[in-house]
Amino acid sequence: MIFDAIRNKENYKAETKIYQALCYLEQISRWDEILPDTVILEDCMFAGPVSFISKEEKECVYEAHKKYMDIHYIMEGAERIATADVRSLQVKTPYSEEEDIGFFTGPASGSCLLRPGDFMVCFPSDAHKVAMMDQTPETVKKIVVKIKVEK
């Protein structure tokens, strides 16, 4: 898991795909500028807008992916995201190969509060509990980039 601000994107030049995604995200000025499943790199990287009202942690559940890593980039509002090693959690809904997602329960290893300009990279080993509120529920607008994981 990586938590940082987009202004520090130059630190990730050695991670080519992550760096390309961060450069793409930095160019977006409005959340509604991109359409769902916008292709950034053919066959390996796409992005889409996500909007929701944040909620209490007890209403949220961990998710994890095997085929793609996620980059969550906040444009409006604040979102707390908890993370844990997927192997330390209990399966709530088994992994779906077709949807590339499984759902889990268990304790967090930690959490980060993301504000506009912040991003979090979640690798396949990082289960992530998204959409958690900070103090009170609020509208959050973010872009999620999916990067295909090399096998």
UniProtKB/TrEMBL annotation:
Gene Ontology CC: one annotated term: cytosol
InterPro entries per record: NanQ/TabA/YiaL (IPR004375), NanQ/TabA/YiaL_sf (IPR037012)
A matching Pfam family: DUF386
Matching NCBIfam families: YhcH/YjgK/YiaL family protein
Protein name, UniProt field: DUF386 domain-containing protein
Source organism: Schaedlerella arabinosiphila
